[in-house]
Amino acid sequence: MWLERQGYANVRRIGGGGMGTVFAATDVDLGRNVAIKTVLPELHNEEGLKRFHNEMKALAAIHSSYVTHINKKLADTEGNLGFEMELFEGGTLEELIRERRHSNEPGFSISDVVKYLRPVAKALDQMHSMRPDGWIHRDVKPANILLRRRPTDSGYSVLSDFGIAISEGQSRLTAVGNVIGTENYSSPESNSRDYSGQEASFSGDNYALALIAFEMLTMYHLKEVMSESAWRTKRIVPAMGTPTIMERLDPQAAMATQQIDAVMERALDNTPYRRFPEACQFIDALEACRNGGAELNARSAVPENQATNYPASGQLPAMGFGMGSAHNLAGGAQNWSNPSIAAVPSYGGLSNAPFNPGINPGASMPSTRPMQQSPQQVQSARPAQPARPQKDNNNALMIAATILIIITIAITTIALVTG
Asked: Quick one: which residues bind ATP (predicted)?
């Protein structure tokens, strides 16, 4: 095998996908175990090579301890291509979920979901906020989340496979109208006839992360609990208290079904700008459910610096993902082709009430849609006028005393004269 000629021993296949194969091997010179990703021979064409070099470019650009890193590029005179990276011997999150499902165990606890997904959320937030445009992964799924056997300072997991990742300003590697990434983990806006041509966004990555969390908690994929037409048009997230789901929940999750419902309702909203603006905000909200809804001020999905009057043409405000994103800096807008979602009326004010899943566990996630205030509400919301300072009465008292003395003297004088 060509990898052995490159100085590797104990080469064995450990995974693969539509674009390449992943091997575990020992670097003979350095005496360390590594992972090697190679391009499939049948993909040594323009599209395949473009994706290979795109992944190398993305991994070189994204400086994060929460993503995989390339040690070196591999190539030979016969046209074989690959690259060496760190070996994660804990397998993938997909394998862990599959093992749990096959053993008929309940879903993961909230604590375990947070443990495995928080590093991925940090990776996404860092990618999305990179200057100048940020990177979009476009294929966040359990198979692309690698696990460590022992946690490091960066946690238990890392995000991998950046073959179709793009920067915000980069041209798409997949033709318009085709499903980008993996359908079961795609967002409504990228996997629906109603959204044909809708560009990928940071929100799509965050939506995929929420789909994974739902799957880990319930042992169901969201697509399994609805019809194909609903999946492609208007997705509805079932309540955690539904009997078929409830029986699969871990005891920790079963004690917080209504709180989890509120978090999932927002994270898996069909409209991108109503979701959590950042992946870590979603993980924070989910973690708060574990504590019975500890106080959490989830920031509004509509940034305060965005205009709150949405034109009827379907232009919705883009979410401000991260400090360095083009959306945040330019205040861009998403162009929606779905008329059922595009018809958003204009509103006057903006509701920024904090979300606390523990205070009112039966309530839905607070709406991020701006609300029109009545004149009475506006009047009552005005700050009270400061009390006017009391006038100084010292001068008046002195004048009154003086007049009284003069009158007394006058009366006394008259009495003496007439007497």
From this structure: 37
